[in-house]
Design brief:
Blueprint (H helix, E strand, L loop, with lengths): L14 E8 L5 H11 L5 H13 L15 H6 L6 E6 L4 E6 L7 H8 L4 E7 L6 H12 L4 E7 L8 H18 L4 E5 L23 H7 L13 E2 L2 E3 L11 E5 L4 E3 L3 E5 L3 E10 L2 E3 L1 E3 L3 E6 L10 E4 L6 E11 L5 E2 L3 E6 L2 E14 L6 E3 L3 E2 L4 E13 L11 E5 L6 E7 L21
Parallel strand pairs: 1-3, 1-4, 4-5, 5-6
Antiparallel strand pairs: 2-3, 7-16, 8-9, 9-15, 10-14, 11-12, 11-16, 12-13, 12-15, 17-23, 17-25, 18-22, 19-20, 19-24, 20-21, 20-23, 24-25
Length: 445
Amino acid sequence: MSTSTTELGLTETTLLRFATAGSVDDGKSTLVGRLLHDSKSVLTDQLEAVERASASRGQDTPDLALLTDGLRAEREQGITIDVAYRYFATPKRRFILADTPGHVQYTRNMVTGASTAELTVVLVDARNGVVEQTRRHAAIAALLRVPHVVLAINKMDLVGYQEAIFAGIAEEFTAYATELGVPEVTAIPISALVGDNVVEPSANMDWYGGPTVLEHLETVPVSHDLAHCHARLPVQYVIRPQTAEHPDYRGYAGQIAAGTFHVGEPVTVLPSGRTTTISGIDLLGTPVDAAWTTQSVTVLLTDDIDVSRGDLIVPTKDAPATTQDVEATVCHVADQPLTVGHRVLLKHGTRTVKAVVKDIPSRLTLDDLSLHPHPGQLVANDIGRVKIRTAEPLPVDSYADSRRTGSFILIDPADGTTLTAGMVGESFASPEPVKDESEDDGWDF
């Protein structure tokens, strides 16, 4: 698209979405609490509540992890279970932070938290170095195409602030992440408990000359180039008030997943392939000439064509192909295994269709990034390649082109459980697939 963000009246955003990740007890919640506390983003009553809770547990100093561990079970067990979202700001930038669980059982929550992040902070305990869950979180960040990764090597106070320990862990992780395809890793030695290099530079590590965690978060470049996205509008709701004031009004409402739409622009409705022109765009009840990513709008079309929930409105000159054969890399998040021949529901945008898992070509081994060919199934927290056949054509983008319209989830049709998160087209080098010889089960499309 030729229209620039300047022409649209947009200014560069100061918002950064980021997530924390890492193994159990690496100090994620403590880091987040320290970040909020030292950046003066904690209200007085919140801090007083943390001080009271810490004192009741016999602690001499406030346990800053309690600022994010809000569930009762989290406080009792001393672990993070759910994704905790926190909003804070400094004079330089606004932040949406997702504090994700470290326990392997809750890897699915890390996928949720990192799916919209532009930066991931991966914590490592300086005493333990890179462990399996560290590698798993690095692999997920790579698959989700998080553009920036910060390696926060925590608890440096417990290893005597030794530069050699920091350098060894940073080298090992960076080599691993680079092999995964992570474009950028910034390593920072910290102590979340006492505040070294979180907001203020550490006097204990004068050998480190890089930024603190907050300095990096405030200055890392964040790209929000709306003008060059593939414009996509998943239809969520059809609006027909049929009132005396608006007898012929028919609008198609949804949140723009990517790109920019203009009044007068030729568009195609998928998967039907019908073409028409945008005759109007309503934003919060006000007509506008253009609308862009994340805005919730109602689009009016010139022609009276059949459009319903689950359809995708796209520019005619930039329409994706529709397909019933989806190949993707997935992270399996359910306790129930995903097997070849598994009947599932595939949810893509606002559309949900029946589907069958036709093949699982490979499963990723996290230790050395080797591929186990044709495992037959994926179990909880496995990352692997799948081939899926859908009952109806889907207009899917490559995940590399669009994180919103290139992703999907697989759902158990029996109870609605989310089974798997998928990224279309994302791939580690996969072995040759084998022919699927599963029996016809009635969902063989």
